[in-house]
Specification:
The complex is a heterodimer. Chain A is an alpha/beta fold. Chain A has one domain: Rossmann fold (3-Layer(aba) Sandwich). Chain A is 28% helix and 26% strand. In chain A, strands 3-2-4-5-6 form a 5-stranded parallel sheet. The chains are: A alpha/beta, B alpha/beta.
Chain lengths: 178, 325
């Protein structure tokens, strides 16, 4: 399975994204990070740590489970329901700039669900999207503001992101025929 | 949705498309419901207490027996999941005009609901419907048989306080004979590895209790001794067609949960009651409103647990009426 990103490159990508966030938003005032479960959550925490190292400020960080907002939920005639996990956003998102964090941007449907979920929590000043990998093939008009790596893929391929906190190892792999 | 065509699915799932009782659920299924309820509980703390999950689904609450708590709880759970809901109480339905249960339900089914939440005074009524209906049936209490969502919310509340169910000593005291809450709780707590003790006057003690691996005693003090959880059951006047107890005052003296009796329980014990409470009959007000009491938490948790059940069953849309379990 071809390795497209190792731990070093992942670390550098996240550091670069952190600098871009600071530059674009002129600091971290009014900013909060929200990671999409599962792998967006550790990525959001890492960016939060990185922002702290660069700027010295603490950025509130939350976790969002989008399962109950999925557009494919009730469309399977029979079958097990996806596991629902806790959403933890222990701060008000009103009038903040929310940085939504996910591992892979693909069809855009997860982000659509996440936007709906976030808006149920309040009215943010703005929502910006951070992804580690953008693999293309959007089915909705959605675009990332910060991208760790643009990765052209075919529809037959699958992109696997592994993170230390969950999988014991930092890497991005690409599976299947191009 | 993220990395590939694969969608994350539950490691375990509910095997039946109905929830008729705790009997038939295994430990993994019970844990799945309780874990899902934890996520659902957070929704109740939001400013906008609603998710779009069951949009376009219709849930009918069919209550052939009076209920405030359970019916309200189901209705709130359904609305928080965006289902369209309506509640039918027997006093205002055609049942009072002599229509049979099956005819009532067939007529409701002709309007294509997705789920029917049902309470009935006859044990087994929801099982009868499950055999003949296309809708998913959720038992909200059938006669003296089962009340599965009550046992699930009790377990959820215990788990929140004790972080586990296995190995706990749980005393269930009161009118055991008429109690569907007892039957569902015993089934659940046994499956999850808790030690259940029961206590009641001999007249209100079912004869077959020990078959279920439950310790039965007529001494409340023995049951409560060192208990992690004390669960009080209501004296059910409406189901008592004979003389089971000499008087309510004598019952309170012998079996009522008083602050003195609570001292025998574990220092961090919790007191539960499925409601409605008869203050001064099975429980002293000082205990019901005291520091050990989690009675109102049970009510709050009921909504989250029912949301979990509705969500988990809503994906199972089999239309074969013979697929009962």
């Amino acid at each position: 399975m071809p390795l497209v990103m190792d731990a070093d490159r992942m670390g550098r990508a996240l550091t670069r994204i952190s600098h871009e966030i600071l530059e674009r938003n002129r600091g971290v005032d009014e900013i909060a990070l929200v990671g999409i479960r599962t792998r967006g959550v550790p990525l959001a925490r890492r960016i939060s740590r990185s922002l702290h190292e660069i700027n010295g400020d603490d950025v509130p960080t939350g976790a969002l489970d989008i399962t109950l907002y999925r557009d494919d939920l009730m469309r399977h005639p029979v079958g097990p329901q996806p596991v629902v996990r806790r959403t933890e956003i222990p701060f008000s998102i009103d009038d903040r700039k929310i940085l939504l964090v996910d591992d892979v941007l693909y069809t855009g449907r997860t982000i659509r669900a996440a936007l709906d979920a976030l808006i149920d929590f309040g009215r943010p000043q703005a929502i910006q999207l951070v992804v580690l990998v953008d693999r293309g093939h959007r089915e909705l008009p959605i675009k990332a503001d910060y991208v760790g790596k643009n990765l052209p893929t075919s529809l037959k391929q699958s992109v696997q992101v592994h993170l230390q906190e969950i999988d014991g190892k930092d890497e991005v792999l690409i599976e299947g025929e191009a | 949705m993220t990395t590939s065509a694969e969608t994350p699915t539950a490691a375990v799932t509910l095997k039946s498309r109905h929830l008729l009782g705790i009997a038939g659920l295994d430990a993994d299924e019970i844990s799945l419901i309780l874990d899902t309820a934890e996520a659902m509980k957070e929704i109740g703390g939001r400013a906008i207490k609603k998710v779009p999950t069951l949009r376009g689904r219709t849930v009918v609450n069919l209550f052939f027996e009076p209920s405030t708590r359970t019916r309200t709880s189901f209705e709130i759970a359904e609305k928080r999941l965006s289902a369209d809901t309506l509640s039918i109480a027997t006093a205002t339905s055609s049942v009072t005009k002599g229509e049979s249960l099956l005819d009532t339900v067939r007529n409701i089914e002709a309007m294509s609901p997705d789920m029917i939440v049902m309470r009935h005074s006859s044990s087994g009524a929801p099982h009868l419907l499950a055999r003949t209906c296309r809708s998913t049936i959720i038992n909200a209490g059938d006669g003296m048989h089962e009340h599965p969502t009550q046992a699930l919310l009790d377990a959820f509340t215990i788990r929140e306080h004790k972080r586990r169910l296995a190995g706990l000593k749980i005393a269930i005291v009161g009118d055991l004979l008429h109690s569907r809450v007892l039957r569902s709780n015993v089934a659940l707590l046994n499956t999850m590895g808790a030690h259940v003790w029961t206590s009641a006057p001999a007249t209100l003690m079912p004869s077959h209790l020990s078959d279920f691996g439950v310790r039965a005693t007529t001494s409340v003090d023995e049951a409560v001794e060192g208990a992690d959880v004390v669960m009080m059951l209501r004296i059910q006047h409406e189901r008592m067609h004979g003389h089971y107890i000499p008087s309510l005052r004598e019952y309170f003296t012998m079996f009522g949960l008083t602050p003195e009796r609570m001292r025998r329980a574990a220092p961090d014990a919790i007191v539960m009651h499925p409601g409605p409470m008869n203050r001064g009959v099975e429980i002293d007000s000082a205990v019901a409103d005291g520091p050990f009491s989690v009675i109102l938490e049970q009510v709050s948790n009921g909504v989250a647990v029912r949301m979990a059940v509705l969500y988990l069953l809503s994906g199972r849309d089999s239309v074969d009426p013979l697929d009962v379990h």
